[in-house]
Amino acid sequence: MSALKGEFRNLINGDLVAASNGQMFDNINPATEEIIGQTADGTHEDMDRALTAARKAFDETDWSLNHSFRKHCLEQLNEALKGSREELRQIVIAEAGSPLLITYQVQVDNYIDAMPYWSNLATEFEYESRMSNIDFMGQSQGRVIRREPVGVVGAITPWNFPLYLNLAKVGPALASGNTVILKPAPDTPWSATTLGRLIAEQTDIPAGVVNIVASSDHSVGAMLSSDPRIDLVTFTGSTETGRNVMKAASSTVKKSFLELGGKSATIVLDDIGMEAIAPMVGISVCTHAGQGCAIPTRVLLPESKYEEGLEKIAEAMAGVNYGDPLEPGNLMGPVVSRKQQERVLSYIEKGKKEGARVVLGGGIPAHLEKGFFVEPTLLADVHPDATVAQEEIFGPVLCAIPYRDEDDAIRIANNSIYGLSGAIWSSDTERAMSVARKIRTGTLSVNGAQWFHVDTPFGGYRQSGVGRENGVAGFEEYLETKVIGLPA
Ligand code: NAD
User: Fold this and answer.
1) 128-184, pLDDT tens digit by residue?
2) Considering only Cβ atoms within 10 Å of each terminal Cβ, which end of the chain, N or C, has fewer?
3) Residue of 157, 227, 236, 463 with the most ligand 1 atoms within 8 Å of its CB, for mutation
4) CB atoms inside a 10 Å sphere around CB 283
């Protein structure tokens, strides 16, 4: 057991509680393989109580109408998160295997500091406005347009960026006046249950407005996609599970908002030097061991510079520090579980069988005795239709694909069921922009420029999802639209 305390209780109807049957499940540190503690293993009965509580809080309190109270509560939550920043940082490192380095950015700090964006929208968003009058059978008619919370939100999150993704759902859902049930991934329960403790102990958020039910049983979370008491299910996770969520949501025609997988491509145009692109291309696929949905995991290199590009990228990847996530210089820790490690390694084997050449890595690092590590791996000569070029591996594995000309590169980049992100490198920004306009993805980076921010709408084309998280567009996902006609 580690010294980290964590929070084992779920939050249901304002109370921090054990599971109804008293069962707990282990929380495992993927870097050490040690059990860091346990969490209440939420049952169907617990989820049922959470559903009743969230419904009641939405239907019977003034939470949805009291904008200034919501702002006040979210400001309290922001203060509570700031006060527990270091505890949350240690939890995310211990349960997700996240390198310390990225907790100072998106993994922890960025989103704690971004909470005022949501609390301000609670009062500053224009919830009611007048449209122009229309003529109906000779009479002038007025129209009022109102934006109202959808109702009870079921939020299901994955393990790769647990605190960020929990807050990215709970923040806008609450600010816009909904009540919420959050079901975190079983690999990273404490990032959610600790949030529950802060809400219960340090905010005036009324009982039932937020419920947090961790469980090792996926079918407990699946209640959020099918139960009629839920109005909107917001899900971040794999495309495969997303399809199940959408299917289950159809039984009650529930609004579903899905942030799913990616297989993003970096296009390196032929007018740029390989030494300019290699560090960023190599580093980004290793960040958090490649466990980011928007990380580019295919690199498309011009035939004329292919071997040189491979060499420089392999050099950059070989230079990435990895190992103990607590080591400040490490960019990469383990993957989240033994199951994920086996999955990543099996993809590498499949890649080899389908003709890929292993330029770097390909296995378990010999120098790390414990933990679910995978070597930074560069696969070359990958066919654009090969399994490793088409399916999400979610590990530090980069697939290099040569292309003939610009049109070929665009075609290969778009040859995917996914459409989440991507990158373009060129010495000519205008040329890069003209390529960017032809790529069918929700976000793109030119020459390494960063787009991620709380006010940037983020999401995918095609099977990378439905809807946008973050930004005003993300806030509006949690709102319905009502129009009231009245005499002018
Ligand atoms: P996952 O799909 O296995 O699980 C995600 C969540 O869904 C977990 O909480 C899990 O318990 C729950 N779940 C599993 N089966 C369910 C069911 N039938 N009904 C309802 N909930 C169910 O994903 P993961 O392995 O935890 O996370 C990795 C995936 O998440 C990757 O595919 C990654 O690309 C994706 N992801 C997407 C984004 C994005 O914004 N697009 C961000 C981060 C991660």
Assistant:
1) 999 999 999 999 999 999 999 999 999 999 999 999 999 999 999 999 999 999 999
2) N
3) 236
4) 17
Q: How far is CA 401 from the centre of its chain?
A: 27
Q: How far is CA 371 from CA 94, 325, 336, in A?
A: 12, 11, 9
Q: 265: which strand partners?
A: 298, 422
Closest to 227 (Cα-Cα) out of 152, 280, 295: 152
Ligand 1, residues 39, 106, 234, 238: which to mutate, most atoms within 8 A of Cβ? Answer: 238
Cβ-proximal residues to 181 (8 Å cutoff; 6+ apart), any chain: 47, 50, 51, 54, 152, 153, 154, 155, 211, 212, 213, 224, 230
C-alpha angle 442-445-446 in degrees, rounded to nearest 5: 135
If asked whether residues 299 and 185 sit together in one domain, one would say no
With respect to residue 484, please indicate whether it lies within any of the assigned structural domains.
no
Whether residue 254 sits in one domain with residue 271: no
Q: Which residue among 161, 163, 241 has the greatest number of ligand 1 atoms within 8 angstroms of its CB, and so is best to mutate?
A: 241
Q: Residue 77's domain is classified under what CATH number? A: 3.40.605.10
Of the residues 238, 260, 282, the one at which a domain ends: 260
Of 260, 289, 306, the residue at which a domain comes to its end is: 260
286 is catalytic: no
Among 84, 126, 99, 45, which residue's Cα sits nearest to residue 481? 126
pTM for this prediction: 0.97
Residues with CB under 6 A from ligand 1: 156-161, 183, 185-186, 218, 221-222, 225, 236-238, 241, 244-245, 259-262, 293, 392, 394, 420, 460, 465
Pairing of strands 24-28, 255-259: unpaired
Q: pLDDT (tens digit, 9 = 90+) per residue, 246-302?
A: 999 999 999 999 999 999 999 999 999 999 999 999 999 999 999 999 999 999 999
Domain enclosing residue 154, as ranges: 10-260
Same domain, residue pair 211 and 312: no
List the structure tokens of 189.
């329960």
Whether residues 59 and 179 fall in one domain: yes
Work out how many domains the chain is built from and give that number: 2
CB-based contact 467:477 (threshold 8 Å): yes
Per-position b or e across 316-341, b if 16+ CB within 10 A of its CB: bbeebebbbbeeeebbbbbbbbeebb
Active-site hit among 7, 259, 375, 476: 259
Shared domain check, 186 and 82: yes
DSSP for 226-253, written as a single string: H-TT-SEEEEES-HHHHHHHHHHHGGGT
Span 345-356, pLDDT tens digits: 999 999 999 999
488 C-alpha to center of ligand 1: Å? 49
33: annotated active-site residue = no
